C-alpha cells in the first residue's frame, strides 16, 4: 500500500516555485515537506504589497508558516486575516467579546480538554471549510504545548498507484455533531439545535497549487460513502495511520507572541496538551475557504 520510499523520489514535490529567492522576507524551512519560519516582517505594522505577496507564496509552498516575536492587537490580527479573504465564524467555539471572528484558544488548571488535541483539519464539516487559520499565542506554558502539522500532499504522494486509483472519486461524510455537542459547555457556550455536516471528496485538488491532497481526518470524517460500512472503517483506519506518519510532519515549539498560519486544504494539525496545569492562551482568526473539489 504505502510507498514511503517515494519520499526520496519524484512523487514528493516540495513546491512549484521552490528554489526561487525571497526578496522581502526571510524563510527558514523546517522540513523538506512542510513548515517554515518567516522573519523580517511585523504582522502588527504596515506590510508592503510585495511582502504580502511573498507571505502568500510562502504559505502555498510550505503549507504552514510561523512568525516569532509578534505584537498584534485584536484588530490587527483580524486585519491580517482579511488580507487572505473573508473571515470564518466558528460554529461552536467561544470568542472574544465584540469579535465573533476572534476565537478564544485557552487551557489552564480548570480545563477538562484543550483545543485541537486530535489530528484534524479545522471545521472540515462545513460545506465550505476554512482556507486557513492564524493562531496567535500570547501566553505559553514553561514546557510542552507543541503543535504538530502534517502534509496531506506528502501523504497522498506516498500512496501506491493502486490506492490512489481506489480513492479517486470517492466522497466522505464530515460531521460536527459528535465533535461540538457539549464541547464548550464549561465555557458557558450553549449547544445549537444542529451542527454542520458536509460531503467532501476523499482526495481534493488545491485551488492555488493544483496539487492533490488527502482530505479525511480523525476529527470530523465519519464514513466513506458508497461502500460498505466495514470497508469504510477499514480504509479510514488505514488512511489515518498512514497520514500520521512522522515523515510527513513538522513540529512547532511555541514561545510567547508566536503566530502559526496553516493551510487547512492541504495540512492537518494536532495540539499537544502535555502542560496541565499550566496556562496557554491566545486567539485564532480563520479565513473562509471554498467547497473542496
Can you characterise this structure?
InterPro entries: AtsK-like, TauD-like_sf, TauD/TfdA-like. This protein has 293 residues and is of the alpha+beta class. The protein has one domain (4-8, 15-287): Clavaminate synthase-like (Double-stranded beta-helix, 4-Layer Sandwich). Helices cover 19% and strands 27% of the residues. It starts with 25 loop residues before the first strand and ends in a 6-residue tail after the last strand.
Give the SSE map.
Elements: E1 26-29, E2 36-39, H1 49-62, E3 64-67, H2 74-82, E4 95-96, E5 99-107, E6 132-139, E7 147-151, H3 152-157, H4 161-167, E8 171-175, H5 177-180, E9 197-201, E10 203-205, E11 212-214, E12 221-224, H6 229-243, E13 249-252, E14 258-263, E15 267-271, E16 280-287
Parallel strand pairs: 2-3
Antiparallel strand pairs: 1-2, 3-14, 4-5, 5-16, 6-14, 6-16, 7-13, 7-15, 8-9, 8-12, 10-11
What is the average of the pLDDT values?
Answer: 92
**Could you give me the name of the CATH homologous superfamily?**
Clavaminate synthase-like
Spatial extent as radius of gyration: 19 Å
Share of residues in strands = 25-35%
CATH topology: Double-stranded beta-helix
Which class of secondary structure composition applies to the elements? alpha+beta
CATH architecture: 4-Layer Sandwich
How many domains, in number, for the residues? Answer: 1
Query: Number of DSSP helices?
Result: 6
From the spread of the alpha carbons, the general shape counts as globular
| Uncertain runs | 1-17
Strand order of the largest sheet: 1-2-3-14-6-16-5-4
Amino acid at each position: 500500500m504505502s510507498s514511503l520510499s517515494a519520499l526520496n523520489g519524484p512523487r514528493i514535490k516540495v513546491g512549484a516555485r521552490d528554489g526561487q529567492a525571497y526578496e522581502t522576507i526571510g524563510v527558514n524551512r523546517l522540513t523538506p515537506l512542510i513548515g517554515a519560519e518567516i522573519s523580517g516582517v511585523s504582522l502588527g505594522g504596515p506590510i508592503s504589497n510585495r511582502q504580502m505577496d511573498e507571505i502568500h507564496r510562502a504559505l502555498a509552498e510550505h503549507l504552514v508558516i510561523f512568525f516569532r516575536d509578534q505584537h498584534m492587537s485584536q484588530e490587527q490580527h483580524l486585519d491580517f486575516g482579511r488580507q487572505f479573504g473573508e473571515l470564518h465564524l466558528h460554529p461552536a467555539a467561544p470568542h472574544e467579546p465584540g469579535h465573533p471572528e476572534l476565537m478564544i484558544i485557552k487551557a489552564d488548571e480548570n480545563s477538562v480538554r484543550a483545543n485541537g488535541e486530535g489530528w484534524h483539519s479545522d471545521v472540515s464539516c462545513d460545506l465550505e471549510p476554512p482556507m486557513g487559520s492564524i493562531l496567535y499565542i500570547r501566553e505559553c506554558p514553561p514546557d510542552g504545548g507543541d503543535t504538530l502539522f502534517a502534509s496531506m500532499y506528502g501523504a497522498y504522494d506516498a500512496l501506491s498507484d493502486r490506492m490512489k486509483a481506489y480513492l479517486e472519486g470517492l466522497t466522505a461524510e464530515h460531521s460536527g455533531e459528535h465533535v461540538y455537542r457539549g464541547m464548550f459547555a464549561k465555557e458557558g457556550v450553549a449547544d445549537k439545535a444542529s451542527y454542520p455536516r458536509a460531503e467532501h471528496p476523499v482526495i481534493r485538488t488545491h485551488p492555488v497549487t493544483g496539487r492533490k491532497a488527502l482530505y479525511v481526518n480523525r476529527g470530523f470524517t465519519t464514513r466513506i460513502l458508497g461502500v460498505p460500512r466495514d470497508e469504510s472503517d477499514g480504509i479510514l483506519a488505514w488512511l489515518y495511520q498512514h497520514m500520521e506518519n512522522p515523515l510527513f510532519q513538522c513540529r512547532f515549539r511555541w514561545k510567547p507572541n508566536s503566530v502559526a498560519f496553516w493551510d487547512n486544504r492541504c495540512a492537518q494539525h494536532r495540539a499537544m496538551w502535555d502542560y496541565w496545569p499550566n496556562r496557554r492562551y491566545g486567539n485564532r482568526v480563520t479565513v473562509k475557504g471554498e467547497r473542496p473539489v
